[in-house]
Amino acid sequence: MRQIDALKSPRFTQVSTFARLPLCEDLSEVKAVFLGIPFDDATTYRPGARFGPMGIRQGSRLLRPYNQFLDVYPFDTLNMCDAGDINVIPGYIDDTFKIIEEELNKIHNIVPFIAGGDHSITLPILRAMHKKYGKVNLVHLDSHYDFWDSYWGKKYTHGTWLRRALEEGLLNEVVQMGIRGSLYSRDDVEDSKRLRIKSFTIRDLKYKLEEVKKELPSGKTYVSIDIDVVDPAFAPGTGTPEVGGLTSFEILEIVRSFNFNIVGFDVVEVSPPYDTSEITTMLAANILYEGASVLAKKM
Ligand SMILES: [Mn+2]
């Protein structure tokens, strides 16, 4: 396995790739890739998620080869590599969405572990997933519903991607977890029922997590994690923080419990300019590590 030397290396200051994995060259034996999508022009509040991939790579330096809780060597099992960043076009959402979809269409039988970017990028990713697999399930961890119809009359933002994905018929079962914070209206709560989304609030996660876990889908599932599902005390570096969220331990445990077939996995809305002491980027890197570990465990 070609990456072992790099993983065992004590050169923790090297930041060029995720977890000091090799850059992807030959993809023939690769089962998973790390991929950055540095786009944040669909953000509505604090910007900076375009620096997410860079920050998450930096926050991943201390990741080591063996996951003791899942008893797996994720990077070895998946022969994982870092595919670099997709060349997005700042300021141009439509063009960027096309590029993201095209780039993802190029990888076959490889599970992408994606660092955003704001949450709008999940829509073109889901379009690519649909092209590959047909309708997939979505497990969405977020403090926000993200199914609003529009912001300032605009249909493509980081708060509307889920509504578009549903309208485009990309999704099968949708499970949301961690919803909280003040809302625009009571209609938001009703809309989750109308849209046939299983929405679980932060209270559901804190008070009856085992019951929520039973509602998770089986089969081909895409995982999208807005880092703001985690409390700002544990993940301050994000665009639209909501207090009263998950701890870093809780989110890692939730990811470890996933028992479906992961077809793709993103961690979005990590904004390093608002981070402190790399708390958020280290957490995001570890969430991706646990996701890769869950996938590797099933191999
Ligand atoms: Mn959010």
UniProtKB/TrEMBL annotation:
The record's CDD domains line, in alphabetical order, gives:
Agmatinase_PAH
Q: What is its EC number?
A: 3.5.3.11
- What EC class does the entry list? hydrolase
Q: Which UniProt keywords apply?
A: Hydrolase, Manganese, Metal-binding
- Name the source's superkingdom: Archaea
Q: One Pfam family for this entry, by name?
A: Arginase
Q: What InterPro entries does the entry give? A: Agmatinase-rel, Ureohydrolase, Ureohydrolase_dom_sf, Ureohydrolase_Mn_BS
Single biological process term from Gene Ontology? putrescine biosynthetic process from arginine, via agmatine
Needed co-factor(s): Mn(2+)
The annotation note on the cofactor reads: Binds 2 manganese ions per subunit.
Q: Does the keyword Manganese apply?
A: yes
Q: Per UniProt, where does Mn(2+) bind?
A: 119, 142, 144, 146, 226, 228
GO MF terms listed in the record are: agmatinase activity; metal ion binding
Tell me the protein family, please: Belongs to the arginase family. Agmatinase subfamily.
Which PANTHER family does the entry link to?
ARGINASE/AGMATINASE (PTHR11358), GUANIDINO ACID HYDROLASE, MITOCHONDRIAL (PTHR11358:SF26)
Q: What is this protein called?
A: Agmatinase
